[in-house]
Structure formats: C-alpha cells, structure tokens
Amino acid sequence: MADPGPVVPRRRIAEELRRLRSEAGRTLEEVADALLISTSKLSRLENAQGRPQLRDIRDLARYYGIEGTQVAGRLERWTKAAQSQGWWTDYSANIPEDLGAHVAYETEASVARVYTIPVLPVLLQTPDYARAYYHSTETWRTSDDIDRLVELRTRRQEALKQREGQPPLELIAVTHEASLRQLVGSPEIMRAQLDHLIECSTAPNIELRVFPFSREPLFTITCMYAYFEFSEDIDHDVVHIETHAGIRHIERPKVVKEYRQYHDALYRNSLAPEESRALIRAIRQQQFS
C-alpha cells in the first residue's frame, strides 16, 4: 500500500488549501515560489496525496494570513490526524492498495450505504462465512493469508459497535435475495450466518433490507458498491464500486449523486427490515435446515 494513512483528514486539508489559494487569487506556481517548495509538492497537498507535514501547513497559514485563526487550528489538527497510522496498515501485506483505501474511508465515514450481490455485506459476515468464501474464491491464497483476511473483516466490523472519537458507523445495507440463497461453505455455516443477520440487523445503527426476486430489476442490481457519507460539511461523499479488477473510486459530484439515487431506488424497492428478517427466517428453514 503506497499511502495507507487516514484519508479524510488529507481530503479536508486539500479542500481548505484549494479554497485559500482561490480566494487569494494565486496560482500554484506563485505560492510554491513564495514558500520555496516545489509546485508538485503543493499540488500533492491540494490533491490529498501523501502525508502533509506540519511545517508546510504552518508556512501556508502564514502565507495566507490566517495564523491564529480557527481555520489554521483546524488545518493543524487535520495534519496531525493525517500523520497517524491507520490500524489497517497491519494487514498491508495481505491486501491490495485499493482495498486499503476502501477500509480507510469506511473507518472514517459516518454512514455507509452498501449494496451486495451475490454475497452478504462484509460488515455483517460471520468469520466462518468469510473464511469459506475466501477458500472457495481465492484458491491461490494460503490458509495463513485467509486467516489474516478474516481477521481484517472482523476488525472492520468493530466500527459498528464502537469507534474512538466518533459514534459507531451507521450501516444501511441492501442485499439481493440471491446472496441469502447462495451456498457458502456448508448448510451449517449458512444457518449460523442467517441467524447472525437476523440478530445484528436489529441494532439501532444497522438497517438491512433484502431486494427480492419478486421485484423488477433496477439499473445497479448487478453491481456491488458502497456509498460513504462523512460528518463534516467540508467532506464530500464518495462511492466505491467493487469489481473483479478491484475497487473503483468515484468522487465526481455528479456521478456520486447518481449513485445515491441508485441506492435510494434499491432501498425503496426492497423489503422493509421486518419483512427482510421474515424472508431470511423462511430461507433458513426451507433451504438450510
């Protein structure tokens, strides 16, 4: 992973620096020359690439004439947060860079809206289900690799219960009925997994809905993705689309807005939470008893 640290503080710094430079009517080259830094370094700061250094941020605050202000204080706090090392870096040898970035956004989001097919949402999977899925789909991995990946999924799920410095993650998940019927591992694993879905979906910060076979297909019905929302006004929502080629990261406001509409359509056309749990119970009894 090239840069596994927290993502959101870097994005906030970049947004603020672009705003300050625009209001000052300066070009990248003018600011870089005044501060005796390279244009590429300033560009990286304004594009949330790499880890910002406190010295550079203080120099920029002085240049823009905001020393001692709330804005300068926020920039320094975000810089210190961006310099910390995310817990997920412990797994950097086992996961690709795009998954590391996905976990970074997930860790710092306030709300995650997800849609999955043909597997269940990662944050609601049992360890046995996750392990069986890895064994059947990623046959080139060693057992030790799979154990580490399952451990990572378990660590990610802790965000639904407690997080340092912020409330638990709110999860709004829509999963296709196919994911409930897809055998992963064994009937015993599926029974335990479906029981887990029924239990955990009653938590106040978790809403699980099932998109049933009985509904007409929608545009994004075959595409797994996550839509992340954040707590501060300066933050912008992002979308991660999962494919066999990896995770595609989307920040363009127009496209992000479209994916929010896609998820809202899936949400509206899915079964309500109690109806979803009833269907889960029925599938458990009929297919995996």
What report would you give on this structure?
Helix 1 (8-24) packs antiparallel against helix 5 (70-82) and helix 7 (127-137) packs across helix 8. The protein is built from 12 helices and 6 strands. The longest helix is centred in the N-terminal third of the chain and has 17 residues, at 8-24. The chain is of the alpha/beta class and 289 residues long. The model has no long low-confidence stretch (mean pLDDT 93). The two termini are 43 Å apart. Strands 3-2-1-4-5-6 form a 6-stranded mixed beta sheet, with helices on both faces. A hairpin with a 2-residue loop joins strand 5 (238-243) and strand 6. It is elongated, with a radius of gyration of 22 Å. It folds into 2 domains: 8-82, lambda repressor-like DNA-binding domains (434 Repressor (Amino-terminal Domain), Orthogonal Bundle); 89-287, Endonuclease, Chain A (2-Layer Sandwich). It has helices at residues 8-24, 28-35, 39-46, 54-63, 70-82, 97-108, 127-137, 143-157, 177-181, 187-200, 253-268, 273-287; strands at 111-116, 170-176, 206-211, 224-229, 238-243, 246-250. This is Helix-turn-helix domain-containing protein. Pfam families: DUF5753 (PF19054), HTH_31 (PF13560).
Nutshell version of this structure?
This protein is α/β, with parallel strands linked by helices and 289 residues long. The chain is built from 12 helices and 6 strands.
CATH architecture name of the largest domain: 2-Layer Sandwich
Mean pLDDT: 93
Radius of gyration: 22 Å
Beta-strand residue fraction: 5-15%
Query: Could you name the CATH topology of the largest domain?
Result: Endonuclease, Chain A
Strand order of the largest sheet: 3-2-1-4-5-6
Number of helices, counting only DSSP H or I runs of 4 residues or more: 12
Per DSSP E runs of 2 or more residues, the count of β-strands stands at 6
Contiguous low-pLDDT stretches (5 residues minimum) are: none
The shape, in one word, is elongated
Structural class: alpha/beta
Report the order of strands and helices.
Answer: HHHHHHEHHEHHEEEEHH
**In this structure, how is the largest beta sheet organized?**
6 strands, mixed
Terminal residue distance: 43 Å
The tally of structural domains comes to: 2
CATH class call of the largest domain:
Alpha Beta
Estimated helix fraction: 40-55%
